[in-house]
Amino acid sequence: LIKLMQIWNCNIQNTAAVIHVSGYEGRDVNVSCSYGEGYESYEKYLCRNDCGNSDVLITTTKAKKNKYSIYDDKKRRVFTTTLSDLSSVDAGKYWCGVTRTGKDIYTEVRLFVCICQLGDLSGGGPH
Length: 127
Ligand SMILES: *[C@@H]1O[C@H](CO)[C@@H](O)[C@H](O)[C@H]1NC(C)=O
Description:
This protein is mainly beta and 127 residues long. The chain is 5% helix and 46% strand. Bound molecules: 2-acetamido-2-deoxy-beta-D-glucopyranose (NAG). 2-acetamido-2-deoxy-beta-D-glucopyranose (NAG) is lined by residues 28-30, 80, 82.
């Protein structure tokens, strides 16, 4: 059946402002992050793990890179990163960032990848 790659931590979910996103292996997933008024023209990005320079996956300055694309909806103040062709290695911790002078603004994101095994959807189970 569907196997979550990471254990959902209910405590984290309820106490911190962490965005949880899940998608299926081989499919696309959208990671949407909102930001405050006044940041419409700032650069936005998505990064992994500790968000060091080599962890930045994509920025709105270069909207398409490898399996990532990013779109900033300035009217709704939401920027969305699409990760295509998900695989289990994509599961983990990400950050949505807004580049600004001083400390950037970060929102933590946890991505879960669900594995859908071949045959599960074709009715092989009990009737
Ligand atoms: C991701 O967002 C784009 C643009 O809004 C949409 O076309 C696409 O269907 C979305 N994909 C998923 C998996 O939700």
